[in-house]
Write a structure and sequence with these properties.
The chain is of the alpha/beta class and about 325 residues long. It has eight helices and 15 strands. A hairpin with a 4-residue loop joins strand 7 and strand 8. Helix 3 packs across helix 4 and helix 5 packs parallel to helix 8.
């Protein structure tokens, strides 16, 4: 089964989600080509060429793809899709933007956020906010458009030497244009790929109290997240949100502070390797998934944790 993998990148760096999605692509069994569509993205193509198992890298370097607008990306992918049995992308904000357009243009049903490849036509994906797993089967021989929940796959090794082929840009549909983006600047790791995440919930009571978590994050070189309740209350910006309608994370360590553990939040972090919960309510659902739980007032426990980390040299 020939596969086209659409790379996730920022025109400079190949995102870790691509390495993990490559593992899913290889599980389909056929040759995997990687599409790098961007602007001045030759360096990204060179990084992608090192992915073990890649047959070749297709580089579409054009101003049209500088911001990977969904309308422009979809046209290019559809033009290439005829040569492939399956098209894969990470289930990232960007992938969720253009892949449904690709599926609609190809007149196929998208298979969303798979967590395992069970066969050439069979996949497992979460439903009901991750509380159940559904095995789905695509008709044999049908073209597949798949997004991958990359947090459930291991990253592919960077031991390959695939050739890079430059391709032309697709047709410009002319129905959208990039205006501007406003990105929050931080020296902390990106939330979706951080190895340690500390998140606050409604129990933080105010955005003025989040600096407590930020101090811990700086000591541990962690990212800061939040529950939807904290975001909706205006404590922190939307890009902090972890959960079903936010970012899905699977760090080595997830510290939940003042988070009750609603189903929607658990859907975004329950695949974390180790989960630590601090909450004064011993009946909070978060303790059902936590590996370590502390029933305590966070306003006392967090400063004590900060002091102990300081003593340990963090």
């Amino acid at each position: 089964m020939s596969v086209l993998l659409v790379a996730e990148h920022d025109n400079t760096t190949l995102k870790d989600a691509t390495l993990k999605t490559m593992t899913a692509a290889l599980a389909l069994g056929g040759p995997v080509d990687i599409l790098v569509a961007g602007q001045n993205a030759k360096g990204v193509a060179e990084q992608a060429s090192k992915l073990a198992g890649a047959a070749k890298v297709l580089l579409a370097d054009d101003v049209l793809y500088g911001k990977q607008l969904a309308e422009n990306m979809a046209v290019l992918i559809v033009e290439l899709a005829g040569k492939y049995n399956a098209v894969l992308s990470p289930a990232s904000t960007s992938g969720k933007n253009f892949m449904p357009r690709v599926a609609a243009a190809l007149d196929v049903a998208q298979i969303s956020e798979i967590v395992s490849v069970d066969g050439p036509d069979t996949f497992t994906r979460p439903i009901y906010a991750g509380n159940a797993m559904q095995q789905v089967q695509s008709p044999a021989g049908a073209k597949k458009v798949i997004t991958v929940r990359s947090t459930t796959f291991k990253a592919t090794a960077l031991t390959g030497t695939a050739p890079i082929e430059t391709i032309g840009a697709g047709q410009n549909p002319g129905i959208s244009e990039f205006v501007k983006d406003e990105l929050s600047k931080s020296e902390r790791p990106e939330l979706a790929s951080a190895k340690i995440v500390i998140s606050g919930g409604r129990g933080m009571q105010s955005g003025d109290n989040f600096p407590m978590l930020e101090k811990i994050a700086d000591r541990l070189k962690a990212a800061v997240g939040a529950s939807r309740a904290a975001v909706d209350a205006g404590f922190v910006p939307n890009d902090y949100q972890v959960g079903q309608t936010g970012k899905v994370v699977a760090p080595e360590l997830y510290i939940a502070v003042g988070i009750s553990g609603a189903i929607q939040h658990l859907a975004g972090m329950k695949d974390s390797k180790v989960i630590v919960a601090i909450n004064k309510d011993e009946e909070a659902p978060i303790f059902q998934v936590a590996d370590y739980g502390l029933v305590a007032d966070l306003f006392k426990a967090v400063p004590e944790l900060d002091e102990e980390l300081k003593k340990q040299g963090y």
